Amino acid sequence: MRITFLSIFPGSFDSFLSYPVIRRAAEKGLVDIRIVDIRDYADGCFRAVDDSPYGGGPGLLLRVDTLSSALDSVRTPSSRVILLGPKGKRFSQSMAHELAEEEDIILVAGHYEGVDERFRRYVDDEISIGDYILTGGESAAIVAAEAVIRLLDGALRAPSSAVESFEDGLLEYPQYTHPAVFDGAAVPSVLLTGDSSRISRFNEEEALKDTIRLRPDLLSHDRDLICHSLHRNPCNEAAIIRWLGNRLPVPSLVHEDAGFLMLSRPKGRPLGDTGRNKMLRTAAAALRLLWSVDISSCPCDEGIRSTIGRLKGRALAYGDWERLRELEMHAVDEEPVFSHGALSLRSIIVNGNGIVSLINLQRAGIADRYRDLASLSDSLEEAGIGKDELFTLLGMDIDEGKLDYFRNLNRLVGSSGI
């Protein structure tokens, strides 16, 4: 890889070139780093690279003709030209990985009030390292270059880069070294056990906790890790898991904080990844298991009336309001049971011995059994299994009207996000 810096202050990069990781990467031939002084391409005896903006305004702008000449001197057909500036996309670790695949990167360091707007048509991307003001883009260019170089094969020991902050969208877990006790604070005992599986689980849990506490903005969606799963909008899930106790096989509640719910991740695979016969038999077993739970003390009401009441508090599309009115006017009679609320082949986790866990319990609570039958029938039909087979296995006659009613209600709940 070749990385070229274009700058009016080339001396800014002297210390960067002496960084051990950067120097080692260059010595190994992993990266060829070049510094181009934009002033070398300025016209006139004063080598002016900047000028006042047309129309007035404070400060100076880098001239488009000088910048363009400097760029032309190093640009090749394989170059990716990046301007460092405040209007750019926010630089991230995923972007660093993307750039690490390039053959030739040219980093243009803006300065003063910025660059002549016309120069932007000569660049491929503009990136920013954060929402704050720097005197020039040299510091930002160094940050971007270092992030990319450390990802090149051979620049670092493999484990060093695999477990760092942001690599999996999380902060790195807390780490400790000698002494084992300092000023009354001890290293967590699990790290002294030598048990690699317990240590891995502990480290993942601590990384999640730190990310929730310090950088919740990194957690934009639910995710599964090796030992844990994380939900941004737990809804009923925490209350239901606490209430269920040992009544059903469900994930354990590990940590709850700032709107996030951390659960243990069950060891197994979704029922949808198994064979046809096992899908059908186990799906029916999951329904019987759910409906066997005593609902007398269940804390969550997911009946029609409660669900419609919550939907009325949402910002629905006009067509959804029409469907909601129809559902309210033609509500069916209910026979309450404990319902998963969104049961599918993906929410039933199995292994060779049967059901390991029921997951995704955000909408679980007291509801009619047809709520589960509707969602599970849809999931089975996607796998090529007709609803008739499920109802036959359960020994039930199909009430088509009731099934359609709950299919429509489930779809409305799913689209509303409640």
What does this structure look like?
There is one protein chain. The protein has helices at about 15, 20-25, 65-70, 95-100, 140-150, 160, 195-215, 235-245, 275-290, 305-310, 320-330, 370-380, 385-395, 400-415; strands spanning about 1-5, 30-35, 50, 60, 80-90, 105-110, 125-130, 180, 185, 225, 230, 255, 260-265, 270, 335-340, 350, 355-360, 365-370. The protein is an alpha/beta fold. The protein has 3 domains: about 1-160, SPOUT methyltransferase, trefoil knot domain (Alpha/beta knot, 3-Layer(aba) Sandwich); about 185-265, no CATH class; about 270-415, Aminoglycoside 3'-phosphotransferase, Chain: A, domain 2. The protein contains 14 helices and 18 strands. The strands form 6 sheets. A 5-stranded parallel beta sheet has the order 2-1-6-5-7, covered by helices on one side. Strand 10 (about 225) and strand 11 (about 230) form a beta hairpin. It starts with a strand and ends with a helix. It is about 35% helix and about 20% strand. It is elongated and about 95 Å long. Helix 4 packs across helix 5 (about 140-150) and helix 12 packs across helix 14.
